[in-house]
Recover the amino acids of this structure.
């Protein structure tokens, strides 16, 4: 992939990089573009041009559009390799996580809806019962995917997803790895209160 | 010895074999695992991508519960739960205001005193490993394990010191040595298996797992050994699929560390639920005359 031209906008640059630095708790201004992060990133082959150092560059230059819409934000597996090796201790995974949140809050269309659905469904399932019920979670996740695919007329995608998930499920059943029991935590009211507080904080 | 035990959601569901094995192995070496009463999901790797406050609050409730029950140490076999709990503890320590906010909603407040341990840390304390070495009844001759740690056993998004090398950990190797199993030196032991990408971004996850598999095979491993239930499920359940896609002929069983310890301590395959693997776990053991 060829290098993209980064937009520089002074006004947006300042506020955007500040927001990302505060929320991710990472000092992006310390990055001196040595690219040690890039050489160890396991998803480098998938993300093409956008490596951790370049994502940081986009942020510092205030190119909000490129920073929110690139493969690294959605393909980063939060393996913390870059952050462990960075001489300035910059954890890019915290940055990609922050960008996912900003993307959701500002109602942007995620580059990978499946990744967004996975995490939001996981958290709502875990909050609902206090513990995660795998079958319920996977079902809700697939429903969300199907709705997105329907909206975009991707019928083939729905079909192949159904087949693939059906195969996984059947294999799990055969290996006694599907758990039909139900688990919950009695103290989930406490967790819901914490969730309310989280939501208030988000609005504030 | 009595310690607190946080199993986490998967050990009560698809990876309940790991729960069974852990309890059996620990009791055999004289450590009683006391499950924390009414624990909740730690939020895994998802909570941090949805809300920062929740990502600390969810594990925090468990820390409070365990401390209120009077435990000074809590062991967490699942690498993701272990990592989340340790990181939350660190964040609470660094941020008093956050701690107050979270404690305001908790019936059992977090003090920050409990020691959060991985399964390897507990097994490698001198008393536990002496006991383990003394109790070995079946030496695991012929096992050539590729010990796979993945991400969350050694790397954290905060500065947290651990008792092992971050990029070339040796904890599992040291345990397997006590069981007289061989381990291989290899390059992918702390590389990522893709975690949830196996569900939401299959291409990426399959590429990552194929690399892990190829390196383990080329160095002569006859099995993979893990501590993380998500790594186990990924490398086991999808192995046939990602190997076919990437032209890999051979297959490797993926054992939990507790599975091999249990075997060496004389437990039966039934007791250890070795039949719950996708890539047959008993074939190699039969071939090596271990069962
Ligand atoms: S390793 Fe750190 S300093 Fe170097 S380019 Fe990457 S983020 Fe910047
Ligand atoms: S944490 Fe994300 S950006 Fe950093 S090395 Fe891992 S996959 Fe790459």
């Amino acid at each position: 992939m060829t290098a993209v031209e980064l937009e520089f906008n002074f006004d947006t640059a300042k506020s955007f990089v500040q927001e990302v630095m505060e929320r991710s708790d990472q000092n992006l201004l310390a990055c001196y573009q040595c690219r040690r992060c890039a050489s160890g990133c396991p998803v480098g082959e998938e993300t093409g041009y956008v490596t951790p150092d370049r994502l940081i560059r986009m942020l510092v230059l205030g190119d909000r559009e490129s920073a929110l819409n690139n493969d690294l934000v959605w393909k980063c597996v939060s393996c913390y390799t870059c952050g462990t090796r960075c001489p300035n201790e910059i954890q890019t995974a915290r940055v990609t996580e922050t960008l996912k949140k900003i993307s959701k809050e500002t109602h942007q269309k995620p580059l990978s809806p499946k990744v967004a659905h996975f995490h939001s469904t996981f958290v709502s399932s875990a909050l609902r019962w206090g513990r995660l019920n795998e079958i319920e979670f996977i079902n809700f996740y697939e429903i969300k995917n199907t709705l997105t695919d329907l909206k975009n007329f991707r019928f083939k995608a729905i079909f192949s997803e159904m087949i693939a998930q059906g195969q996984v499920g059947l294999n799990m059943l055969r290996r006694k790895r599907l758990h039909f029991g139900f688990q919950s935590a009695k103290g989930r009211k406490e967790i819901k209160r914490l969730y309310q507080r989280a939501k208030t904080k988000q609005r504030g | 010895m009595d310690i607190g035990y946080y199993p986490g959601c998967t050990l009560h569901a698809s990876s309940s074999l790991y729960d069974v094995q852990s309890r059996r192995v620990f009791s055999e070496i004289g450590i009683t695992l006391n499950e924390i009463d009414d624990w909740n999901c730690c939020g895994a790797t998802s909570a941090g991508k949805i809300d920062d406050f929740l990502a600390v609050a969810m594990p925090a409730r468990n820390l409070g519960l365990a401390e209120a029950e009077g435990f000074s140490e809590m062991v967490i076999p699942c690498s993701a739960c272990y990592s989340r709990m340790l990181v939350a503890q660190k964040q609470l320590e660094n941020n008093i205001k956050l701690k107050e906010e979270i404690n305001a909603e908790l019936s059992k407040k977090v003090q920050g005193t409990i020691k959060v341990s991985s399964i390897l840390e507990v097994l490698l304390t001198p008393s536990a490993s002496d006991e383990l070495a003394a109790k070995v009844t079946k030496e695991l001759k012929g096992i050539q394990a590729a010990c796979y740690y993945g991400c969350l056993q050694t790397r954290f998004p905060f500065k947290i010191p651990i008792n092992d090398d971050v990029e070339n950990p040796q904890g599992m190797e040291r345990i397997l040595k006590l069981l007289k199993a061989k381990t291989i030196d290899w390059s992918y032991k702390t590389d990522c298996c893709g975690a949830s990408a196996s569900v939401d971004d299959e291409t990426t996850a399959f590429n990552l797992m194929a690399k892990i598999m190829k390196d383990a095979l080329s160095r002569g491993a006859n099995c993979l050994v893990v501590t993380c239930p998500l790594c186990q499920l990924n490398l086991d359940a999808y192995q046939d699929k990602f190997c076919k896609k990437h032209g890999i002929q051979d297959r490797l069983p993926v054992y939990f560390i507790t599975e091999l310890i249990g075997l060496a301590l004389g437990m039966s395959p039934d007791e250890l639920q070795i039949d719950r693997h996708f890539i047959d776990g008993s074939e190699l053991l039969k071939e090596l005359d271990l069962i």
